[in-house]
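User: Fold this; tokens only.

Assistant: Input:
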Amino acid sequence: MKLICIGRNYTEHIKELDNERPSEPVVFIKPDSAVLPKEQDFYIPSFSNDVHYEVELLVKITKVGKHISEKFAHRYYDEIGLGIDFTARDLQAQLKSKGLPWEKAKGFDGAAVIGNWLPKEKFKNLNELGFSLLKNGEIVQNGHTSLMLWKIDELIAYVSTYFMLKKGDIIFTGTPSGVGKVAPNDYLVGKIEGEQLFAVKVR
């Protein structure tokens, strides 16, 4: 299983981090060791003083595919979910300033929260979904798939040009604006259309 992550897929998030709007999806990979085990707390790593939450809609691939046409992309997934792409923002900024890869800031142990999965048939239109992240009971991120620069099927087609997709692979489709720092004892809850899909305690 590989975790394929999309960066800069929401205009307002691009603005809040003062990044350049990309002409094509920004892609990076997290190792499977980054997945936070179910029911386990997230521990802020010792090498960062500025870890940020980034809530994202997830897509789980159900079969092998390469060079997938956008019009057939819907055949390659049956479920969607919600997760967090934890980012060591201070380390990421340091690496970016030197033109180095981001993996240490994005792929460390526990940096990927994967919540429960829902059948895509549960929803009328995957391009009209609302999702949110609550921190200590307050909404800090409110996302909507209609605001994605590249929608789910477009991302599958694009990614499969470079990487063969395999059963069990997960695509993190990007985060909306509102990202922020976590602190010990924070409690993070993720929801799609009001339905809770994960809850994580920060240590």
